[in-house]
Amino acid sequence: MFSGIIEQMAQVVKIEQEQGNKHFTLRNPYPATMGIDQSIAHNGVCLTVVKNEGDLYTVTAMQETLNRTNLDQLKEGDWVNLERAMSMDKLLDGHIVQGHVDQTARCIDVHETDGSWYYRFEYESTPEMIKRGYFCVDKGSVSINGVSLTVCEPDVKNDKGYVSVCIIPYTHEVTNFKYIQVGTIVNLEFDIIGKYIARMHQLI
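The structure corresponding to this sequence follows.
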């Protein structure tokens, strides 16, 4: 369980393919506290640490995860957002983020406005996906590359969903939002509360 408040970024230093899996080795920003089996969100994807050696650690993504997220597009040298799992006594500063990415989205607009940054994203949105809770509501929450954000200007047109977010300078600097440009693919996790309500609506 995560909150969508990014703690660090880590740089990918090696990527290895093993059958349908990919092993990602990154520089370790938590050398004193990281352990094997620890769950860490990478661009919002919950992955398990399988190797920890000095200033490097390795996580593995299976084919299903690679198909559903932007991890398969990572290259050596790329930066990913990191968040360690919440402890029970931690403040929930963002919203409830599971680390289970629903789908990807593509950036279609980005510009600076009044000292902050505006991003707009486009994603696949069919009636069936909406029934499953894959949608955004104005002033609701969404996780983009693991960052908990407030939804602006949500819309659905012709099997495409749209969502905008505004990024303050601090978040722009300490996350990989500063590398996002038009055409960049990001990870989306919709609000789990909305998904439960959508499912209950189907069953009642």
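Residues 192-203 form the longest helix (12 residues).
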